[in-house]
Amino acid sequence: MVGAGRINAAAVLLVAVVAGAVAAEDAGGFITWDDLTIPSAVAAPRGVWDGAAAGGHGGVKAARARDLDTIVVSQDGTGHARTVQGAVDLVPAGNRRRVKILVRPGVYREKVTVPITKPFVSLIGMGTGRTVITWNSRASDLDPSGHPVGTFYSASVAVEADYFCASHITFENSAPAAPPGAVGQQAVALRLSGDKTMLYRCRILGTQDTLFDNIGRHYLYDCDIQGSIDFIFGNARSLYQGCTLHAVATSYGAIAASQRSSPAEDSGFSFVGCRLTGSGMLYLGRAWGRYARVVYSYCDLSGIVVPQGWSDWGDRSRTKTVLFGEYSCKGPGASTRQRVPWSRSLTYEEARPFLGRSFINGEQWLRL
Q1: Domain 6-367 falls in which CATH fold?
Q2: What is the pTM of this model?
């Protein structure tokens, strides 16, 4: 079950995100394929740290940090920083140009935050199986003041900045798997709280509440997302294209929990050309918000989908206001014969607004 305590934290952050989005818009930024790729001469191009030539000590003076186009993270000390957070700290506050953080192979056991003051950051790994950022916080863990951190702050990696990109990297929360109905066991691998974010060929691994797709417009392309209960949740407007959704549920679970609580909120999750694999019996979506919106189109759904397909979160009144839809899906789990009567088998015209990047206003910030 998704913890309600994170809602207040999300609302507080929303004010800051709006302010940061204005600054990002002023920069006139677009996300391109180049923002997701390793520089061709990363060993020693202009503005890139050559740790070996510098004696392998690692680190860089703060005065030089603002001149860097690429920041290298290496655990052996031959980069700018030994930790991912150390590299993020080198990005100047108020940054208005693309800065790539290249994370060399390794398992980085740390919590990482990309603050709202640092937009236009790319986090580029050397392969999802080779570059891993992992931590093990759960919602019930205590902070230094003795209070539970809550779901919001359990994230191994939290992105609060706009125009963030990530590619070829794994985000993981390695906390023990939570059984259904457990309290305080939510464990977020990645929280996305900025606007105009793209992830390409990333893995996001956890069990309950793996990906907190909090607020903003997000594009996840060719990614692997693993979990058991509400493993994609939040109030963002996000397009998942060509992704693998892998369930590790031991009994019942759910893929998506949309928090949309008003018809005025232009949020929801669209899954296009995705593939569902794994174990357990999965709901396609649950109505966390009264106006929850989740659509699956052209997806390959395995037989682990419960025949009813969807959950009203125990509130029958939500069946009148949610939009839970399916269009042209295939596989053993795609049969709609036993679906709840308040879900919808969409026509092409009904599904079309959810099928492409226009769902996330991609023409305004994607140039791919």
Answers
A1: Pectate Lyase C-like (2.160.20)
A2: 0.89
